[in-house]
Amino acid sequence: MNKPRILPSFLKGLKLQECIVNNPSGMRLVDLSREMGMPPSNITLYLNTMIHAGIVSRDPLSKRFFISPRGIELFHDAGESLHHKLIPCAEEPMRYLHERFNENVLLAVQKRTTFEYIKYINTSHIMRIGIEPGPEYAMHVTAAGRAILAFLPQKAIDKYMSTVSFVQFTDKTVKDKAALQQVLAKTREQGYAFNSGEVEEGVMAVAAPIVINKRLVASLVVQFLTIRHSQKEAEDASKVVVQQARKIEGALRKMM
């Protein structure tokens, strides 16, 4: 089968745009030239086109290039649109997990350097983990956040690492960047995140990433209480959680 024809110049433009997106503090022409492996004169043509389209702006003092407010709005709208598609696709897999384990099942999405739950199903047990709609959570201390953070582009991870504050919630909470890097590497290797008592004693969680076209979309999470489950039982549930995350990905692809 013949490969589909592509426009190499358009692909370079998209990669250039991605470079700027991944550097919120802005990028100089020389930095973009080095990053892309292209002469500054060629980079300038792409940037002028993006500025004309209103996607990129240039600060006249620092001479750095940024994603413009219009560009940010477009990216935000695209993300919101995908979330609207994500929720119905997640309905059946989330209900399956709820019936299987009768524990809290949640769907988490990134919100800049944090994440939030956009859908959840509570356990029917009286003893349960309280879930509040709306609040944002640090990504590095929870399974939900790690399943997102670990699968972001390396530059986005580095950016997060440069600003993260290691607040200790329990004596198990990850304490420094080196330890977090190890946790993220393990998460990528095994394909899911596991957390045991790092945010709250007695609470464990398994989370699987949801990825479409190499883009991290969300994480699917099941929370477990140690009064009802052993750590082995919680970790063994990872296979089922990952399977249901793949089902969500399949349903999403059909809608795109």
Features:
256 residues, three-stranded antiparallel β-sheet, six-stranded antiparallel β-sheet, single chain, Arc Repressor Mutant, subunit A, alpha+beta, Beta-Lactamase, 20% strand, 2 domains
Short summary:
The protein has 256 residues and is α+β, with helices and mostly antiparallel strands.
Overview of the structural elements:
The protein has 256 residues and is of the alpha+beta class. It has 2 domains: 8-67, Winged helix-like DNA-binding domain superfamily/Winged helix DNA-binding domain (Arc Repressor Mutant, subunit A, Orthogonal Bundle), CATH 1.10.10; 75-255, Beta-Lactamase, CATH 3.30.450.40. 48% of the residues lie in helices and 20% in strands. It has 9 helices and 9 strands. The strands form 2 sheets. Strands 6-5-4-9-8-7 form a 6-stranded antiparallel β-sheet, with helices on both faces. The two termini are 23 Å apart. The mean pLDDT is 86.
